[in-house]
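Hi all, posting the design record for the shared folder.

TITLE: backbone redesign
STEP: 1 of 1
STRUCTURE INPUT:
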């Protein structure tokens, strides 16, 4: 919205700053962070008052989780509200990729909210049916994939780009939309599975968002893509503003989610943020790089898949408990130890993902 202040500029004054994506990204970060600090306490108070017993704690979960009983959930409302406000305020609202990512984020947030509400109101760990959640997620992701394909440049439409190999493209044709569904739904559910310890999911999400934001900004500039041998996708640079808002809102949330958490993000936040990461990757043609940058989420999801398949076939378990962060809890690792080490892994993977921009 504030971008339109550039109409008041004569090319060399203060209003000209709004032409620059980096300046507006800084504004989005500051706005979202302020939003988090301003509305965090009253939102937590409302959630605590309305939810009573808070998020239900699974009986078969790690013993250390029982002390968290009564902690309210749906804290993802704070993050989503912050990034929505900052994006609408600082991004160009004529950019289709911005609206595509917002569409996915808000839609998945609503699915997550319905799931959280069902859990809290019924005081059970079973919320909305998994089939219903997945079906809605598939439809939303399919719309987003088709949406992105309409605005990709002609040479990249329905193409899958590979990191490192600058000229290698795979024409997916009509399979691009199903592939986009896998990316977006997979990212949403992987982040959802990771959100099991105080602060565990939000920091890796912010790290991945920062990485994808830089990538989106780079591939949205023809000078950078020419120098680095990347595929140019006009318009993706504006997604840096969205990711800046996500980081600001995420930090505001982490202030209250740091151990011991005063609020959980719930499915409202985890599904929304995971879906957002997937949507940015699809928009910027870096779906494979997302698997590297979000490698922590991939491992968390794979640990659940492996556990379920192995148990069904043998009746035995590979891990003491899945997702894998619970396995380490069962082994006696302290929660802060797991969280910080997983943060370090997420940061390392982000650096590897960024390196693919240069290694060609």
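Okay, here is what came back for every position:
SEQUENCE:
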């Amino acid at each position: 919205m504030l971008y339109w202040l550039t109409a008041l500029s004569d090319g060399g004054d203060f209003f000209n700053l709004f032409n620059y994506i980096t300046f507006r990204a800084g504004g989005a970060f500051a706005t979202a962070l302020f939003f988090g600090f301003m509305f965090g306490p009253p939102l937590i108070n409302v959630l605590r008052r309305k939810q009573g017993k808070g998020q239900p704690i699974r009986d078969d979960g790690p013993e250390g989780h029982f002390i968290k009983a009564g902690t309210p959930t749906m804290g993802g409302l704070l993050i989503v509200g912050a990034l929505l406000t900052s994006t609408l305020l600082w991004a160009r609202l004529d950019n289709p990729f911005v609206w595509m990512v917002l569409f996915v984020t808000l839609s998945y947030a609503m699915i997550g909210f319905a799931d959280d509400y069902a859990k809290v109101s019924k005081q059970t760990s079973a919320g909305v049916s998994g089939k219903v959640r997945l079906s809605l997620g598939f439809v939303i992701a399919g719309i987003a994939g088709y949406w992105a394909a309409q605005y990709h440049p002609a040479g990249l439409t329905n193409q899958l780009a590979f990191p490192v190999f600058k000229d290698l493209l795979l024409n997916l044709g009509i399979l691009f939309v199903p592939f986009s569904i896998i990316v977006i739904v997979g990212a949403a559910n992987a982040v959802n599975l990771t959100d099991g310890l105080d602060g565990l999911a939000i920091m890796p999400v912010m790290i991945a968002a920062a990485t994808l934001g830089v990538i989106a900004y780079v591939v949205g500039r023809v000078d950078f893509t020419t120098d680095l041998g990347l595929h140019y996708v006009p318009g993706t640079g504006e997604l840096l503003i969205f990711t800046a808002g996500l980081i600001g809102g995420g930090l505001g949330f982490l202030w209250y989610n740091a151990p011991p958490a005063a609020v959980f993000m719930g499915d409202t936040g985890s599904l929304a943020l995971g879906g957002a990461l997937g949507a940015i990757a699809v928009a910027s043609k870096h779906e494979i790089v997302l698997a590297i940058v979000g490698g922590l989420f991939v491992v968390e999801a794979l640990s659940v898949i492996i556990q379920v398949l192995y148990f069904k076939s043998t009746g035995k378990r590979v891990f003491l408990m899945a997702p894998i962060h619970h396995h380490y809890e069962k082994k006696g690792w302290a929660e802060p130890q797991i969280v910080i080490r997983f943060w370090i892994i997420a940061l390392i993977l982000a650096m590897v993902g960024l390196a693919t921009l240069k290694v060609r």
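COMMENT: Residues 28-355 form one domain.
Let me know if anyone wants the other runs.
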